[in-house]
Design goal:
By secondary structure, this protein is mainly alpha-helical. It contains 3 helices and 2 strands, in the order H-H-H-E-E. The chain is flat and about 60 Å long. The protein starts with a helix and ends in a 7-residue tail after the last strand.
Length: about 100
């Protein structure tokens, strides 16, 4: 897929970025090359290939789920401007 300068200008407008003409040409070329690579990758036959969650076929080492910190809720809520029934009260910001 060929990305034109017009497409890059449109994306720049949407993202509120500005480029000079030299950068614009460079981005057009780079984006076209990336999309060409994606098209090549989509043509690869993956029939019978099972999806993997980890390319190294490793498993996550797990640790025992134990409490390592004291509950300091009262301390933290003691310095809060307003709390009620264990929750923090904040000013309404949306009408």
């Amino acid at each position: 897929m060929k990305i034109t300068d017009t497409v890059v200008k449109n994306i720049a407008d949407l993202t509120q970025l500005t480029f000079d003409k030299r950068e614009l040409a460079s981005f057009s070329t780079s984006m076209s090359e990336i999309l060409e690579l994606v098209e090549q990758m989509q043509q690869v036959d993956t029939t019978g290939v099972e999806p993997m969650s980890n390319p190294l076929d490793a498993t996550q080492r797990l640790r025992e789920d134990v409490v390592t910190e004291e509950n300091q809720r009262e301390t933290y809520q003691g310095i809060a401007p307003e709390t009620e029934d264990g929750i923090y009260l904040v000013p309404k910001v949306i009408e």
